[in-house]
Write a structure and sequence with these properties.
Elements (H helix, E strand, L loop, with lengths): L10 H15 L7 H20 L4 H12 L7 H12 L9 H16 L13 H19 L4
Helix pairs in contact: 1-2, 2-3, 4-5, 4-6, 5-6
Length: 148
């Protein structure tokens, strides 16, 4: 980072921000060091470029964060947690939903693969269809594991 700008976050700031976000919404990506490095490098470059273009540190940070979190606003994991909370509260206690969501990710991947998932997917009409299909997949999984 540019040492002349004392307000400039360094790459560890972006890395820690990303890891914190992944821990919360994309835990399946926490071990993907290549992905984390690529995102943090891109965010750092975006910040530096914005500063070179005359943007304020705040504006540069906003641009860097847009790059850092691009493609991560829709979370398969969060979707599964919400379905478990909303549709299966009797089968999966709320405090266990996150553990179950991790277990269910591979089971639900074929359903997710049928959709073009993007940052704004939760606002698309297809989201309801995905939600319904995932609910069915989870119900079958829970039934086969004698939890329903």
């Amino acid at each position: 980072m540019n040492s002349k700008n004392s307000h400039a976050p360094d790459i560890s700031y972006f890395r820690l921000s990303l890891i914190d976000f992944l821990r919360e919404s994309h835990p399946e990506r926490l071990k993907d060091n290549r992905f984390i490095l690529a995102c943090t490098d891109a965010a750092t470059e975006a910040y530096e470029q914005a500063i070179r273009n005359g943007d304020t540190p705040s504006e540069a940070a906003e641009q860097a964060n847009a790059v850092l979190f691009r493609g991560l606003h829709f979370s398969r994991y969060d979707t599964l947690v919400n379905i478990l909370w909303n549709e299966f509260p009797d089968e999966v206690p709320e405090d266990e939903a996150k553990e179950w969501a991790i277990k269910l990710l591979p089971e639900c991947e074929p359903v997710f693969a049928q959709y073009l998932l993007s940052d704004g997917f939760a606002d698309e009409p297809e989201y309801e269809l995905l939600y319904t299909e995932l609910t069915g997949t989870i119900a079958l999984y829970l039934e086969s594991h004698e939890l329903q």
